[in-house]
User: Which sequence fits this backbone?
């Protein structure tokens, strides 16, 4: 039995406002402990910090600057610990850190800066919680910069640990010229009406993307990514934003089906969607089922979730609020599932089945996934990060067969026909 206690009021409203960011500089070298050797400068205006950040990141080659949200006050930390806890039976086993920053309704800061701050904060809190669950070794923080200084990213990886075969939490903030191929891909979607021929465009993008492959075959693989794009005309002296949009989603890929887990995952996503627009979840759920379909196998990759792209039908601030909530509620959607399944016993056959399912995951990502293909075709793309979503191990077995009525078959049945989970 698992209980996941959340306040009636959404967490995003219960925490104190995002306060002045703390600027810290550190070196993400081979050191696995990112917190060593910090230089802290407190009390700087976050707006200044944000605009400074991108410039700094591009100018200073080896040092890295990035932000942390101020911590809520100690009383609130205690309060929030009580709100979110994972129980198994009577015994409390794990206490996660749910001290998320809250959405600042009054902020007038441009979405670009807020988005950058958001992905960094989400990365930090997720990595921390995965480390709490794993409790064996820390994530490896790999900070990179594009050779042309037009962007940076931080890839956090945990590989071959006790609980996670491979977990990656990747953040990147980049800008640059929009290539012909990217332009065509955008035109073929709904951005076509705003994009002119014979004009050169620049893009700006900030995103977070995560894939987690647990060791235990009873624990589901998960993926999510959220991103924000802006386009400007290169020759426009004012650099007015031509168009901007949000995209992303989250989906679950179990090897063994636990219906209550699927329901919990979907319900959490749905609750966060419903807060913003009741039409979001049904639409985005359907998108997800359609997107994560493997045609050559005639099955979906997993049990779905939500997926959307080109979201720009209302004020940017409202959409950012939506993305903000979706991002932080990922903790609630997934972490209880891993906590519940990571210690279950399993057989050699269970592990083999997981490996075969991993093979399908690879097939989808390499053959069908738009993001991976786009990344590999982008000049200067970082192959290592793009392929971060692939599992450490997988297995292809010629004509693998499973007994009728087995738990393996139960999963396959669900992957053949879309189900309503929430
Ligand atoms: C794919 O699976 C569906 C659902 O089981 C089935 O109705 C359909 O005929 C299958 N298509 C092919 C090409 O096998
Ligand atoms: C899993 O088992 C380990 C001991 O093997 C224990 O320390 C940990 O608390 C357990 N975690 C959960 C969430 O059950
Ligand atoms: C992860 O990093 C690569 C660059 O190395 C980038 O292409 C990709 O977009 C990143 N993912 C996100 C969503 O940040
Ligand atoms: C299949 O499983 C169900 C319950 O899980 C059981 O009632 C049924 O008898 C099984 N059928 C066969 C053919 O084994």
Assistant:
């Amino acid at each position: 039995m698992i209980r996941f206690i959340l306040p009636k009021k959404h967490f995003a409203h219960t925490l104190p406002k995002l306060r002045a960011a703390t600027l810290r500089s550190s070196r993400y070298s081979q050191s696995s402990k990112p917190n060593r050797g910090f230089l802290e400068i407190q009390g700087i205006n976050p707006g200044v910090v944000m605009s400074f950040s991108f410039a700094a990141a591009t100018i200073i080659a080896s040092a890295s600057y990035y932000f942390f949200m101020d911590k809520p006050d100690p009383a609130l930390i205690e309060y929030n610990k009580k709100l979110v806890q994972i129980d198994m039976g009577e015994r409390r086993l794990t206490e996660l850190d749910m001290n998320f920053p809250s959405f600042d309704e009054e902020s007038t800061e441009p979405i670009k800066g807020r988005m950058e701050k958001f992905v960094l904060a989400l990365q930090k809190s997720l990595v921390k919680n995965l480390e709490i669950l794993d409790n064996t070794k820390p994530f490896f923080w790999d900070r990179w910069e594009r050779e042309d200084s037009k962007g940076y990213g931080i890839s956090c990886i945990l590989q071959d640990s006790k609980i996670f075969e491979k977990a990656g939490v990747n953040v990147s903030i980049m800008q640059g010229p929009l290539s012909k191929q990217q332009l065509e891909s955008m035109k073929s979607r709904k951005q076509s009406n705003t994009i002119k021929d014979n004009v050169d465009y620049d893009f700006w993008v900030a995103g977070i993307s995560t894939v987690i492959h647990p060791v235990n075959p009873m624990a589901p693989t998960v993926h999510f990514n959220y991103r924000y794009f802006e386009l400007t005309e290169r020759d426009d002296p004012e650099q007015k934003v031509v168009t901007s949009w949000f995209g992303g989603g989250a989906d679950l890929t179990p090897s063994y089906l636990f219906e209550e887990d699927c329901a919990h995952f979907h319900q959490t996503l749905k609750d966060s969607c419903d807060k913003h627009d009741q039409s979001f979840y049904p639409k985005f759920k359907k998108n997800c089922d359609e997107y994560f379909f493997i045609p050559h196998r005639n099955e979906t990759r997993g049990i779905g979730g939500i997926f959307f792209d080109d979201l720009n039908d209302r004020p940017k601030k409202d959409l950012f609020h939506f993305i903000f909530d979706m991002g932080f509620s990922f903790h609630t959607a997934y972490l209880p599932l891993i906590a519940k399944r990571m210690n279950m016993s399993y057989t050699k056959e269970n592990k083999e089945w997981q490996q075969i399912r991993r093979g399908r995951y690879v097939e989808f990502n390499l053959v069908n996934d738009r993001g991976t293909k786009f990344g590999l075709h982008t000049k200067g793309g970082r192959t290592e990060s793009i392929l971060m979503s692939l599992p450490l191990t997988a297995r292809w077995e010629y004509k693998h067969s499973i007994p009728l009525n087995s738990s393996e078959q139960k999963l396959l049945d669900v992957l053949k026909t879309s189900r309503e989970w929430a």
In short: Residues 2-416 form a domain with the oxygen-dependent coproporphyrinogen oxidase fold (CATH 3.40.1500.10). The pocket of 2-acetamido-2-deoxy-beta-D-glucopyranose (ligand 4) is lined by residues 405 (CB under 6 Å). The chain has one domain: 2-416.
